[in-house]
Amino acid sequence: MGFSVHWSCFAVLLCLLCMGGGVRCNCTDDNMQIEGGHYTLTKQLMSGSTLIYHCPEGFYPYPTLSRLCQPTKIWKPLPKRYLHQTCKMIECPDPNVLEYGNVFPPQERYYVNNETRFECYSGYTLRGSTTRVCLPNGKWTGATPICSRDTGDHCADPGIPAGAGRSGNIFGIDDTVKYSCNDNLYLVGSNERVCQENGQWTGTEPACYYRHTYDTPLEVSEAFGSSIINSLTTLESTEDTQEGRKIRITKNGTLNIYIAVDISESIEKDQIVKAKDAVTKLLTKISSFAVSPNYDIIFFSSELFEIANIINFFGGNKKSLQSILDELEKFNIDERDNAGTDLNLAFTTFLERIAVIKQQAGDGFKDHHHVLIFFTDGGYNMGGSPSPTVAKIKNLVYMNHTGAANQQTREEFLDIYIFGIGVDIYDDDLQPLTTGTGGKHYFRLKAIDNLQETFDEIIDEEDVKGLCGLHKEYDDQTKESKQKMYPWAAQITNRKCMGSLVTPKFVLTAAHCFKFEDLPTDVQVDINDGRGLVKKVKDFKLHPDYNVDAKKNEGVDEFYDYDVALIELEEYVKISTDVRPICIPCTKETSEALKLVGESTCKEQEQLLLKTHLEELSFLTKNPKIEQKDVLAKLGDNRNECIGHALKAKGITTKDPTVAVTENFLCTGGRSPRRDHIACTGDSGGAVFKNYEHRTIQIGTVSWGTKNLCKAGGVVESDDASRDFHINLFRVVPFLKAVLGNDTQNDYAPLQFLED
Ligand SMILES: *[C@@H]1O[C@H](CO)[C@@H](O)[C@H](O)[C@H]1NC(C)=O
Ligand SMILES: *[C@@H]1O[C@H](CO)[C@@H](O)[C@H](O)[C@H]1NC(C)=O
Ligand SMILES: *[C@@H]1O[C@H](CO)[C@@H](O)[C@H](O)[C@H]1NC(C)=O
Ligand SMILES: *[C@@H]1O[C@H](CO)[C@@H](O)[C@H](O)[C@H]1NC(C)=O
Ligand SMILES: *[C@@H]1O[C@H](CO)[C@@H](O)[C@H](O)[C@H]1NC(C)=O
User: What pLDDT shows up at residue 330?
Assistant: First the structure.
């Protein structure tokens, strides 16, 4: 100790000396090498620079992961002469904690790729994994093995995770088990669990982490996804006859989301750009749910940089998501001096804002749900510990119900998530700050690299499968990404038509895809839900007013009004990220997708979706890959010119275009004001759709066109005169409602249509 004090005095002196001489003084790179690895510096050898050690996969830097060049120009921690810096093999926590069973092979230590096998004593049965492999992130694959026998206990044996010890061996109602981690491991998750009346343990299974243990992006997306989704939706499991469960969104409550990103030097610079990207992705993802949260977004070091202030969300001038995203994009940290980290400042800021909200909301505050999300390594060097501030936040949100019994009633209104990011994460300081029900709240990431992808994966969650029109948005031109972008796309293969999945049991297409004599068994529907491509058809219904000959004697050889049909499948398709229904007009689900609050109407939906006189819409083609075609629907003043071209179509002799093109059609095509794509043979029956805030709404079905410019299919551009006509679904709602909303049958769950 005395030694290092002496040396730092000396260094300060030396520094003053060299500054006086106009030269800057730096930390030294003597004795910094690491055996088996290398190091990088964030700011060369200057003050504030972090030295980060790197090791090959399967190894970690020992005894320290990084060093900081302090203003005194001394490294912290200082390299120790007797403890050589080296790359050590990554270990997984000790699996030999299994009760009533044996672990093979028995070893002192387990390294990456080592495999273990578990066997229970006779009379005991094994739950969890029978074999596990040690991974390069310091965790075992699979689940904790548990050997138990039926003792009539109320809760099942919760087991002992690798590296841990447990006290408590009785599993009746209200019995408690406590966990701790051995050696130099520390515990992530619940250190105490209580057996509840419903037979489940409270909290989450704890895990023992080394300083070099990290969560993989997949683990984070699974755990964070299932946890945050509790805040974004409330589940209503209706009859479980249906594959996709129904989702109802909390309408009463207000969701307030506070995001804080640590931009101090202790986190590497390129990671901050990635943090910005990840926050952007998170916000976009959340916006695809029906809730519209209020946001507070800050970046912090020793000072605070505000991106969005939640107070602005109250009282009229609500910021749009896009304006927040723009602010985020604009934020640049290069211009700032980020010395110092004041984590408590971030918490205090949120505390103050929650207090203001409480004051403004009055009694309504009890329906406010608060979600705080932090990205930090926890290495604060000013402002003190945030613990007392967190206690105040809890007291505020729990409304003084902090006594053990009452607290639980309010616990679900506050979630604090922490993403520990960086080479050296201060877990002991950070983990106790997390709070909330329903799953893991503390995550440990080596780098922020995959966080964007992590947040994107959140919609894979089982619970959101039922939401119509949800889709992924990245296109890497592979078949898989196409299917995820258009998970509702179906094909009526043997009729060369497209269709769209509108419920787990119905496909919407064009009536003209069917022949007069067709039976359900003649029609082949392809949907790739992993249970066989070809779906059996139970029945199909054409619109009752569809009659291709209706206007033969008025100069229209083939009349396509009401050109829609619904195909009922024999079985429900399996809903997943790859296969999911599209939203259709005038349903309650679509109002939720459009974020229409209160008693919304069909008309409101239409006004929102077809609001300008040139509305951007799309439909799909297959040749042989699925591709998107983009068109402008000519509405209002633009419509007459557009439908006028119908008179040049073959088989039309009337002088009045509205005889062939009734009010029920949307018109697209031509080259003005933009060259539209044109429909090809084979595109018929497909959805004409629009993406709205990350959800897809079907507006029409592809029906007929004036010219056949592309028998072979593909993405083809229109010529001057060519036009396409699509049935506007808003005009055929009674038909859709009669079939899809039919609640006098027991074959399928009816869709909920709006009253008017
Ligand atoms: C300190 O480091 C900077 C950047 O590497 C360098 O330009 C400067 O010359 C160094 N000063 C001394 C005294 O070594
Ligand atoms: C465990 O891993 C270490 C390091 O890779 C290796 O030397 C050892 O042979 C492995 N043990 C077994 C039983 O595979
Ligand atoms: C929602 O609010 C309404 C009126 O404020 C109330 O009648 C209803 O019970 C609330 N619903 C829930 C689930 O709290
Ligand atoms: C909570 O406690 C604080 C301080 O003890 C007090 O000022 C406040 O009025 C209490 N709030 C409620 C809702 O009881
Ligand atoms: C609704 O279901 C009932 C009972 O199966 C059936 O008789 C009726 O035809 C259905 N309505 C429509 C429009 O399909």
Answer: 86
Selection from 209, 225, 296 nearest residue 261 by Cα = 296
What's residue 617's pLDDT? Answer: 96
Amino acid letter at 183? D
| Residue among 130, 145, 131, 33 nearest 98 (CA) | 145
Same CATH fold, 479-740 and 91-209?
no
DSSP assignment, residue 245? P
Residue 712, Cβ density class (10 Å: 0-12 exposed, 13-18 middle, ≥19 buried): exposed
Pick the catalytic residue from 66, 301, 684, 722: 684
CATH superfamily of 91-209: Complement Module, domain 1 (2.10.70.10)
Cα–Cα dist 443/418, whole Å: 6
Q: 219 Cβ partners below 8 Å, 6+ apart?
A: none
Q: What are phi and psi of 731, to 5 degrees?
A: -95, -5
Chain-centroid distance of CA 471 in Å reads 11
- Among all bound ligands, the one having the nearest atom to the CA of 104 is 2
Supply the pLDDT for residue 16: 52
CATH of region 219-459, choose from 3.40.50.300, 3.40.50.720, 3.40.50.410, 3.30.70.120: 3.40.50.410
The pLDDT value recorded for residue 401 is: 65
3-state secondary structure (DSSP) of residue 625: coil
Dump the DSSP string for 35-89. Answer: BTSEEEESBTBSTT-EEEEE--TTEEEES-SEEEE-TTS-EESPPPSSS--EEEE
- Which CATH entry fits the domain spanning 479-740: 3.20.20.70, 2.40.10.120, 2.170.16.10, 3.40.50.1220? 2.40.10.120
User: Does the annotation count 84 as an active-site position?
Assistant: no
Name the one residue in this structure whose structure tokens are 């050590």.
88
**Ligand 4 atom closest to Cα of 399?**
13
Domain boundaries, the chain: 2-89, 91-209, 219-459, 479-740
Ligand nearest to the Cα of 359, by number: 4
**pLDDT value of residue 23:** 47
Smallest CA-to-CA distance from 492 within 542, 527, 531 is with: 527
Low-confidence ranges of the chain (pLDDT < 70): 1-24, 217-218, 221-222, 225-253, 265-269, 271, 288-291, 315-318, 333-339, 401-409, 438, 448-454, 456-466, 473-477, 597-598, 693
What b/e readout covers 684-707, taking b as 16+ CB neighbours within 10 angstroms?
bbbbbbbebebbbbbbbbbbbbbb
Residue 408: what pLDDT? 53
Q: What is the 3-state secondary structure (H, E, C) of 146-179?
A: EEECCCCCCCCCCCCCCCEEEECCCCCCCCEEEE
Q: Which residues contact 504 (CB under 8 A, 6 or more apart)?
A: 242, 243, 244, 572, 573, 575, 581, 748
Known catalytic residue: 471?
no
- CATH classification for the domain delimited by 2-89, as one of 3.40.50.720, 1.10.150.20, 2.10.70.10, 3.40.50.2300: 2.10.70.10
Closest by CA to 243, choosing from 39, 491, 530, is: 530
Sequence-ordered list of residues with C-beta below 8 angstroms from that of 735, at least 6 positions apart, any chain:
543, 544, 562, 564, 566
- pLDDT tens figures, 650-676: 999 999 999 999 999 999 999 988 999
Q: How far is the CA of 259 from the centre of ligand 5 (A)?
A: 50
- For the Cβ of 28 lying below 6 angstroms from any atom of ligand 1, the answer is no
Report how far ligand 2's centroid is from the alpha carbon of 35 (Å): 21
CA of 19 to the centre of ligand 1 (A): 11
pTM of the complete model: 0.60
Closest Cα to atom 8, ligand 1: which residue? 24
SS3 call for 326? helix
- Looking up tokens 């029900």, which residue turns up? 437
Q: Is 394 exposed, middle or buried (0-12, 13-18, 19+ CB in 10 A)?
A: middle
Q: Which residue has the tokens 């060049």?
A: 69
